[in-house]
Amino acid sequence: MSRVQYILCAKAISLYVWASTYLARSFAFVENVIRVMDLEKEAPNVVTEPRFRDLVASGYRVEVVCKEDAFKKGPNWHGVWILRAVSDEGVEKLLVTARTRTSRNDIKIREIRTVTGVISFLQGIGFSHADIPLEEGKRTVQKLSGEEIAASRG
């Protein structure tokens, strides 16, 4: 079994102080305890590449976010892009590396540094096209078509 940690949020503390009966205090405490996942095992809003692929194939949109302005160096375009899988309900999953975490157990966001890298990644998921923002802070959203999903499964 994995170890689960619990923390008490500030709202619960104020409710606990103001509640007058034991039952009310207990309810306020239980209602406002936040379950915190052990980040060494699982993080709630990040995924590695295999899960990212599954999410996109199941209908999530891919959001390509430009973190640094793109610039042309020789025949290639360079910059920094990150990718997110976004559901129709607005649930976002950020793509992270599958490599070993750093010494502090931090999760490393996967950054792609060339336009060719972004295109290759999107093509590997099943996209037949790529829309890539070239200015910092800009983002584009794309979703696999029915034909692309069928082709990636076949």
- Major sheet details: 6 strands, mixed
> What fraction of residues sit in β-strands?
25-35%
Number of helices: 5
Pairing-aware structural class of the strands and helices?
alpha+beta
Helix content: 25-40%
Q: What general form does the structure show?
A: globular
Q: How far is it from the N-terminal to the C-terminal residue, by CA?
A: 38 Å
Mean pLDDT: 77
Radius of gyration: 21 Å
Number of strands: 8
- Strand and helix order: EHHEEHEEEEHEH
Task: Compute the number of structural domains.
Answer: 2
In brief:
The chain is an alpha+beta fold and 154 residues long.
Write the layout of secondary structure elements.
Elements: E1 5-8, H1 10-18, H2 22-31, E2 33-36, E3 46-47, H3 49-57, E4 61-73, E5 76-86, E6 92-95, E7 112-114, H4 115-125, E8 139-142, H5 146-153
Parallel strand pairs: 3-6
Antiparallel strand pairs: 1-2, 4-5, 4-8, 5-6, 5-7
List keywords for this structure.
154 residues, alpha+beta, six-stranded mixed beta sheet, two-stranded antiparallel ribbon, 8 strands, 29% strand, disordered N terminus
Describe this protein's structure.
With 154 residues, the protein is α+β, with helices and mostly antiparallel strands. The chain has 5 helices and 8 strands. The protein has 2 domains: 5-36, no CATH class; 46-153, no CATH class. Strands 3, 4, 5, 6, 7 and 8 form a 6-stranded mixed sheet that branches. A hairpin with a 2-residue loop joins β4 (61-73) and β5. α1 (10-18) packs antiparallel against α2 (22-31). 14% of the residues are buried. Residues 1-42 have low confidence and may be disordered.
